[in-house]
Every structure is written in structure tokens, then in C-alpha cells.
Amino acid sequence: MAIVYLGIGSNLGNREENIKQALDLLNAAGVEIIRCSTLIETRPVGGPANQGFFLNGAVKTATLLSPEQLLTKLKSIEHKMGRTATVRNGPRIIDIDILLYDQLTLNTPVLTIPHPRMFGREFVMRPLREIEPALNGNTPHAHH
Questions:
Q1: Cα separation of 98 and 102, whole Å?
Q2: pLDDT digits over 45-87, tens only?
Q3: Does residue 27 sit in helix, strand or coil?
Q4: Which of 4, 6, 20, 98 is the most exposed place for a label (fewest CB within 10 A)?
Q5: Residue 115 and residue 65: Cα distance in Å, rounded?
């Protein structure tokens, strides 16, 4: 099983319920939820003005899916939950990102692991450090 850290967020509708539903769908899709951080409320970064605040969290999971399979599942869950393509960094019912996948470093046209923008984003790093204190800002690797 690969240990995968996901970032999850929502700023439309019942945000907490959206995140809970996403976790249930992940579980059903072969992604075992090991630990979920506290959800924190954060101001949207980039994107259109006047959109609602986000609830963001990080989730430690285990899965047999490859990074590409996992990405497909995440997109399908976002789609199933009614996420539609809007403007970049726009409001969204659910957002699930692969942050770390085992010790893997991947850079393909569709997927970059570790997530390229995570280290500069406190709303990603704070929940991540909560569930995995060994992760500090300098290294994507939880264990050596």
C-alpha cells in the first residue's frame, strides 16, 4: 500500500458535509482514510473576488492505486459531487489534491508530486503538519 497525503477543500454549500462526503467516496474508491486533520477556515488564494472562505484539511490515506489511477478517481469524485470547471482558483464544491505519494517524485504533464505549490501554502502545510508532525517545511519526505 502506498501512503498518500491528500489536500481537501470546499468553499461552496455545506463545506463540512462536502468534505465528509468526499472522504466517504474516497473510501469507497479504494482509498483508505487513516487520519484527517482538523478543518481550518481560510481565505481564498487567487481566483475571483468575493468568493466564500474555504474549509481546508489534509488527509493521510493508504491505497493500492497508482498515482495516475488515484488522480482519475479524485477527478471522478469531484465530478460526481458536482464540481464543474470554472475559472482557475474559483469557487468549488470540492477540491482534492495529491500532496505526497510515498517517497515518489513525479513530474508529468498531468501530475506533479510533491504538489508544486503546497510548501508555500499555509492552508495546506498547517493541516499536513498536524497529521504528520515529521513533515517540516523543508522536506517532502516524512521518513528517511
A1: 11
A2: 777 778 889 999 999 999 999 999 999 999 999 999 998 766 6
A3: helix
A4: 20
A5: 18
Closest CA to 11 of 71, 86, 101: 86
For the chain, the domains span: 2-131
Residue 15 host element (H or E) = helix 15-28
Whether the Cβ atoms of residue 77 and residue 26 lie closer than 8 Å to each other? yes
Angle, vertex CA 53, rays to CA 9 and CA 22, nearest 5: 20
Supply 117's cell numbers. 505549490
Q: Is 138 exposed, middle or buried (0-12, 13-18, 19+ CB in 10 A)?
A: exposed
Fold of 2-131: Alpha-Beta Plaits (3.30.70)
Q: Looking at this protein, which amino acid is placed at residue 61?
A: T
